[in-house]
User: Fold this.
Amino acid sequence: MGCLQILNGNVEEKYSWNLDSPAETRIAREKFEVCMKQGFIACKIFKKGGPGIQITEFDPEAEEIFMLGLADGG
Assistant:
């Protein structure tokens, strides 16, 4: 079971998928790809609360993927 967590400003979205469900995996992959095209940063987390590595491609075997939208600042 994987979890895609997306944080964009004050908006948080979560998508879960099971490798046995191609439909769930496809939805998570599509959301990941849309966010990447919008300039989000993605990290694959290895253990809850632990370190992660930055990724640029969806990994369906990841336990957790965290995506952060870049905020406009000044």
Summary: Helices lie at 22-37.
